[in-house]
Design brief:
- It is a single chain.
- By secondary structure, the chain is an alpha/beta fold.
- The chain has 2 domains: 332 residues, Glycosidases (TIM Barrel); 77 residues, no CATH class.
- It has a 7-stranded parallel sheet. The chain has a 3-stranded parallel sheet with strand order 11-10-12. A two-stranded antiparallel ribbon has the order 4-5.
- Helix 4 packs parallel to helix 5.
């Protein structure tokens, strides 16, 4: 099990790349390491690192390597996002892709070549560092492909797949054998017609990344203490397995936080502990990376209010209650093998076809799959999920240890009783869950 944090610098937020201060970075990382965490996720700002399509600034790349070395000195591994992309409600795209130079981020040949070389360059610069975990293509860059972004670069699902495969290959060329992956915000799982799909998330790259934010309607519908709210991250981890072709594909909870007012400040520590405990009950979890390390300084303007207080530590690097909660869990699990029991009851997911998933909104908060899963979890069950196309496939179910399946309609008809709703699929012999 890995426990880490998305690194938010105390001085200047991600604008710190403009005035890079290695001593300040070291002090930040000291405070992260003191929590007992083992890795950080780091965010170069794409326009600052590649301000011109033909210029990847050597000094910026050198500073990224210095940050990686500082992390390693403190026992912290480092994962690097490339194309920022989007962070905390702000977009960071280079001028050579916008306005007078407007070109589609995902299909224009020159943009693709520039992105490819940028990702390869960052990966290559870190390839010889033992603490380097790998590249994530960018932070939730899928948001640029569709609404509700105010100015999206529309693409098809096939074009999204081609872009992902090409960019992952560039990372692999730069740093062969590292953990290269891509990450999407939850439109990939919940939004009908979105070109980035669950199948891409669960099948491309070294691991599946999920980002869990309960301000997406979950907390509004179920409240800050609801089972669905505290287990939303676990739901996404298990939902990803419905699409995975490898029954033991690792899943990385790469972003999760306690956003106010949806999670009141006085409940942040409890929410942190409950969320992490729930995902630790999911087999094949690679790790948990909390958003974020440090609060955003109130001296910076125009952030959404919730963004200022998401840190495990304050801007003076003192630990907040949520930070103590995560530190306690990291200490409890240090050196322990993570092997929770198999989740042998599966809820059926019918999205109209696994590839394009045209009806994936059934999985979103308020949708029948989401609400049935939440009801089962509230009753004490430990459900996973299975695609409708595979719900009767004996080999697939056996490979995942699934011995019982249930549809959302059956959960509803049972009045929410987990015991009444569960049934054995006719093609799978009953057996107990095993570790």
């Amino acid at each position: 099990m890995r426990f880490g944090v998305n690194y938010t610098p105390t001085q200047g937020w991600f604008h710190h790349w403009l005035d890079f201060d290695l001593d300040a970075v070291r002090a930040d990382l000291d405070s992260v390491a003191a929590l007992g965490l083992d890795h950080i996720r780091v965010f170069p700002l794409w326009p600052l690192f590649q301000p011109n399509r033909a210029l990847i600034r050597p000094r910026a790349v050198e500073q990224l390597v210095q940050l990686a070395d500082a992390a390693a000195e403190r026992g912290l591994d480092i994962a690097v996002d490339g194309l920022q992309g989007h962070l905390s409600s702000f977009d960071f795209l280079p001028a050579w892709t916008r306005t007078w130079h407007r070109r589609n981020l995902f299909t224009d040949p020159e943009v693709l070549a520039g992105q490819e070389e940028y990702l390869r360059t960052l990966a290559a610069a870190l390839a010889d560092r033992p603490a380097f975990l790998g590249m994530t293509l960018g932070n939730e860059i899928n948001q640029f492909s569709d609404g509700p972004h105010p100015d999206p670069d529309h693409i098809t699902g096939a074009e999204a797949t081609a872009w992902l495969e090409r960019m992952l290959a560039a990372c692999e060329r730069g740093a062969p054998g590292r953990m290269h992956l891509h990450a999407a915000y939850d439109a990939a799982w919940y939004r009908d017609g979105h070109p980035f799909t669950p199948a891409q998330a669960a099948r491309l790259g070294a691991v599946t990344a999920v980002h869990s934010w309960v301000f997406n309607g979950t907390a509004q519908r179920h409240g800050p203490a609801g089972t669905a709210t505290e287990q939303h991250a676990a739901y996404l981890v298990e939902l990803s397995k419905a699409w995975a072709t490898d029954p033991h594909r690792p899943v990385w909870l790469q972003e999760v936080g306690a956003p106010a007012p949806h999670i009141p400040a006085e409940r942040a520590a409890h929410f942190t502990g409950a969320t992490v405990a729930a995902v630790l009950d999911c087999p094949d979890l690679w790790g948990v990376t909390w958003w974020c390390s440090h609060d955003v300084s109130r001296s910076l303007a125009d952030f959404p209010e919730l963004e200022y207080g998401l840190g495990l530590l304050r801007t003076d690097r003192t630990v907040k209650p949520a930070g103590r909660a995560l530190a306690a869990l990291a200490a409890e699990w240090r050196g322990r093998e993570h092997r929770p029991p198999v989740r042998n009851c599966a809820l059926v997911v019918d999205v109209g076809g696994a590839g394009a998933a045209p009806h994936r909104s059934v999985c979103a908060p308020g949708g029948p799959v989401f609400e049935a899963w939440a009801e089962l979890a509230t009753q004490g069950a430990r459900p996973t999920l299975v695609l409708a196309e595979l719900a009767g496939n004996r080999d697939h179910l056996a490979s995942r240890g699934i011995t019982e399946v249930v549809s959302p309609d059956e959960v509803r008809a049972s009045g929410g009783s987990a015991r009444a709703a569960r049934r054995r699929p006719p093609s799978v012999p009953h057996r107990r869950s095993t570790s």
